[in-house]
Protein 1
Amino acid sequence: MRGKGKSAQAMIEMAMLAPMIFMLLIFVFDLARAAATWAAISEAAREGSRNSVLIGTGTAATDNSIVGSTKLFGVNLSINSVAGCIHGNTPATNPGTPAPAAANTGYIYIIPGGTPSATTPNAPQGQGAEVNNAGCNPAVVAGLGTYPIKIVIAYNFQPFTPFASQFMPGGITMTASSTMNTEF
């Protein structure tokens, strides 16, 4: 009779603790997904930055080639450039490189690697003239010389489990960047 009481107590305790154990286990999966996302956006930023300073035989990188390279290495990520605002926002509007509002998406920015100014290069050598939206920084093409160009990915990570989403209702903004010097 004594053994039956202990097994019934253990079953009740397990029934009470099982939901919490399973929620914590699923939360660990969300953390692993966040770590994998962070690694992917970091690698994509590095490869985009590397592409920004390369020059081929008679050709140089452009904004489009940098975005393409960044997207290629952003495995399983939804990352895109902001149309007409790839070089970041002016300080007067929404300064810097904001992340998108949509869940699990990111923006790619190409900005100056040093102290930003109106004459600091923020575009690769092969970049031509482009049309900018109001409130966006214009493209300042890097000429001959050494200039730091920085690739930034601002990503809005949203957990997929309801348990983790309660603690992060707006998601987590992950920002990865890489700066390399042009050597044209």
Protein 2
Amino acid sequence: MAQSAAVQSGLARAVDQALEAASRGQGIAREDALRLIESADTRALCAIAAALRDRFKGRIVSYSRKVFIPLTHLCRDYCGYCTFRSDPKPGVAAYMTPDEVLAVAQAGVRAGCKEALFSLGDQPEQIFPEAREFLRARGFSRTLEYLAAMAELVLRETGLLPHSNPGLMPADDMARLRRSNVSLGLMLESTSLRLRAKGAAHWRAPDKAPALRLRTIEEAGRQRIAFTTGILIGIGETPAERVDSLFAIAELHRRYGHIQEVLVQPFRAKPDIRMASADDPSVEDLQRTIAVARIIMPELNVQSPPNLVRDDFPDLLTAGINDFGGVSPVTKDFINPEAAWPQIAVLQQRTEHCGFELRERLAIYPEFARSVDEWTDAALAAPLAAHLGPDFYARVQ
């Protein structure tokens, strides 16, 4: 009994010391981060994270008004939590056609969108003849080539700023995408190798190998591409694995300075997935992970999607986020189709009620837009200038 009390007292002191270290805003050791995510009082943890957010990012909370273009749902990965991917179906086209892509983009322009978010499955042509046939008929051999052509088409014909999230990207494809995309993205999701075991979340998902995803994120740094990444929580990872994933992101940013945004995204169970019976992470669990992400990377933009917590999205502000990500007035969230976007007017009202200013940004964050010659191709100068305001947020119409 006395030993147990002594152990508990020692843990409490260690947690208090970790909170004190966190409050200095100079990052934190892995051991301290693990103590915080596992044992700290949620209110105290979030208070420190929110204070760091205010210190490093101020009281502006941003979002991007986007249109969502799901170029293809075909994917060679079979992740246990995904409803976006699909196998070929009779009567269903393998990819969106150029006309379909343009129609969605033009609807976005009419609704005041600035970003064209391209999402798609990973390398479907590797396993599906239907994908190869569609591409070959249009003069392409790989999905990433078709993506680059569609991003260039949207940029040229509509002026929307593309941001593509296509999975793993070899260096040459990334270099071409850089010519039309103001930023790129790839969710790290997790560095856990356990999740690749049979029956786990990343079983039968060759593109979810952590080393391959880290290599893609690193290559973006080498090519000076403003990059979005993050972790997915609730897919079977441990708290220590969450912490390790966040530190892997922090290390790549320390080396290259290119991570414009870190997402902390919660898993949401759905009836038609392999993990349908898995539990969703609670809002408190999400808050604790966001807070630790903020403490590990106090100077970075930390984001969590408001539609995945429904009416609880002000709780994300309490935990230290400074961005809500892309919100579309036109298209649904094809990754989580059951979770409707909040109306932007409601998002603004509730954000302001919490004492923050909601600002629209572009698909490239203001701090990267300030050094636009370093982070984007020269061909993007005119389209960016059409949308950038004097403070590097979206121009107010």
